[in-house]
Specification:
about 220 residues
Length: about 220
């Protein structure tokens, strides 16, 4: 890896630390009776309301349609995600220190896998809360109705419009991924340029005896 590639990878690791402090996802609920809306912020280790009373109000509304209470303590993945993010941060620092391109590729693969699994788990969590309803105790019963918000985008749920979008924490994680991808591209281009520069010129040179001699140049930039 080049010095620039290692610097970009180290910078990506520092940027990813923001994922511990900023929300990763946001879900807003808009309705005529709530002109300012209600909202949830999903962090790496918890779920909270956008305002002090939002989570409590959303759980009260969910009770009418038979949805489970949104309790961060009852969501096992929130105990795992901080460790996954921490491993990615440490891994990026190790890659930057080691300067090995193979480790860089492995880190990108691990990051992409973790991101896809995270989105799948988010979809599964929404589906579980929106479809597994306690219809026996529900006050509002609409046959065939489910209440899962979209993973991303907007969806009408009765008189509420649910809007689900990435938040600032996810934006920082995305920037980090792009930086490491750029580090890989720069490292590959530098290695390719070094190999081209190490190729012997066409033809052979003669030594003092008149015998043909070819230069033996080792390609540089193999890291």
């Amino acid at each position: 890896m080049t010095r620039l590639a290692r610097s970009l990878t180290a910078l990506a690791a520092l940027i990813m630390v923001g994922g511990f402090f900023l929300p990763l996802w946001q879900i807003r609920l808009l309705a005529p009776q709530y002109p300012e809306g209600l909202g949830l912020l999903i962090h790496v280790n918890t779920v909270r309301g956008m305002t002090e009373n939002d989570l409590r109000n959303i759980n009260s509304l969910n009770h009418y349609i038979g949805m489970k209470v949104i309790d961060p303590e009852a969501i096992p993945v929130l105990n795992i995600m901080p460790w996954v993010l921490g491993a990615l941060v440490v891994g990026a620092l190790i890659v930057a220190l080691a300067g090995r391109r193979k480790l860089l590729v492995a880190w990108l693969g691990a990051y992409a896998t973790a991101a896809m699994l995270g989105l799948f788990e988010f979809w599964r969590w929404e589906r579980d809360y929106g479809r597994n309803l306690d219809m026996e105790h529900a006050i509002i019963k609409v046959p065939g109705m489910s209440y899962e918000p979209p993973v991303i985008g907007a969806k009408q749920l009765l008189n509420f419009t649910a809007i689900s979008l990435p938040a600032m924490g996810t934006a920082l994680l995305g920037v980090a991924f792009v930086l490491v991808a750029l580090a890989l591209v720069h490292s590959l281009r530098a290695a390719r340029a070094a190999r081209r520069g190490a190729l012997p010129t066409a033809g052979a040179t003669n030594d003092f005896t008149g015998n043909a001699a070819t230069s033996r140049l080792e390609p540089a930039g193999t890291r």
